[in-house]
Design brief:
Blueprint: E1 8-13, E2 18-24, H1 52-66, E3 76-82, H2 93-107, E4 112-117, H3 125-138, E5 141-145, H4 151-158, H5 164-177, E6 180-185, E7 187-189, H6 196-211, E8 216-222, E9 233-235, H7 238-251, E10 257-260, E11 265-266
Parallel strand pairs: 2-3, 3-4, 4-5, 5-6, 6-8, 8-10
Antiparallel strand pairs: 1-2, 7-9, 10-11
The structure holds iron/sulfur cluster.
The site of iron/sulfur cluster (SF4) has 9 residues, from loops.
Length: about 270
């Protein structure tokens, strides 16, 4: 019998290639400065707010009680800050990073530490300094969202007041010092996917920021794999994803471009 956990959740991740242990910094309510139409967070009743001591307790329970019963062919690939919102907006970001680092070092030394972010705070000096230290000292991997190559596409996908320019410049400034993995959702909205011009803008933007000093470990183009509450988005066909990846690869020589369809990574 597994212990009920509120803040952490093991998932089989197509992009991590195994088990990923998610950490939710917002168990009480969704907290995000984006409103992506494909967001998979359904309304939920809400638990008590995040407390750092609860995370430490749950991590110990998971690793000492639950994890030994998991199938050995399902390795733990990473501990990931993600969950019901944008993790960098949490006042507990620093303590949560410290907690997953301690847990990783003690119970899962081969696992990565990952932060999935919508990139809106990568240009904020305090957040960038905290994340940069964690990259340098603990090998944190930053998965930075870049949904769109122009203002209009970005606006459609994020419905955010954060200007597109701030997101792009944040990714550029942060990644110039600490390389990131860029992740981009490609899906249809109300039956319409990104146009050829949208994709050309995206590839051009990637080329531009790389030319200005951005460093990308990988670019992940992925499509919707699970339903969203709004129900207005759908996955892109695999052929369209592969064509987009070919286009981006040509403009980002030396950066691996990986493509994830509904059920897993596509071979290219
Ligand atoms: S950035 Fe993430 S959490 Fe925020 S609305 Fe988009 S998909 Fe949802």
């Amino acid at each position: 019998m597994f212990t009920p956990l509120e803040l952490i959740y093991p998932v089989v991740s197509r992009r991590a290639g195994g088990l990923s242990l998610g950490v939710d910094l917002f168990p009480d309510r969704k907290t995000c400065n984006f409103d992506c139409p494909y967001c998979e967070i359904f309304p939920f009743p809400g638990e008590p707010p995040f407390r750092p001591e609860d995370l430490d307790r749950e991590l110990a329970e998971f690793f000492e009680v639950d994890y030994p019963s998991f199938p050995p062919d399902l390795p733990l690939r990473d501990l990931t800050l993600s969950g019901s919102g944008e993790p960098t907006l949490s006042p507990h970001l620093g303590s949560a990073l410290a907690s997953i680092r301690t847990a990783r070092d003690r119970w899962a030394p081969g696992a990565d530490l990952v932060l999935i972010t919508n990139s809106t705070t990568l240009g904020h000096p305090e957040t960038a300094a905290l994340l940069g230290r964690c990259v340098d000292e603990a090998g944190l991997r930053i998965w930075a969202k870049l949904d769109g190559g122009n203002e209009e596409w970005y606006g459609r996908m994020s419905r955010s007041r954060v200007p597109f320019r701030d997101v792009v410049e944040g990714i550029l400034s942060f990644s110039s010092a600490h390389a990131v993995i860029v992740q981009t959702m490609l899906c249809t909205l109300d039956g319409r996917g990104p146009s050829d011009a949208d994709l050309a803008d995206y590839a051009g933007l990637v080329e531009d920021v790389l030319g200005r000093g951005a460093r990308f470990l990988e670019i992940h183009l992925y499509t919707q794999a699970r339903p969203s509450p709004e129900g207005r988005t759908s996955p892109l066909p695999e052929a369209d994803l592969s064509a987009a990846a070919d286009l981006v690869s040509r403009r980002a020589p030396g950066v691996p471009v990986r493509v994830f369809g509904r059920t897993g990574e596509l071979s290219r």
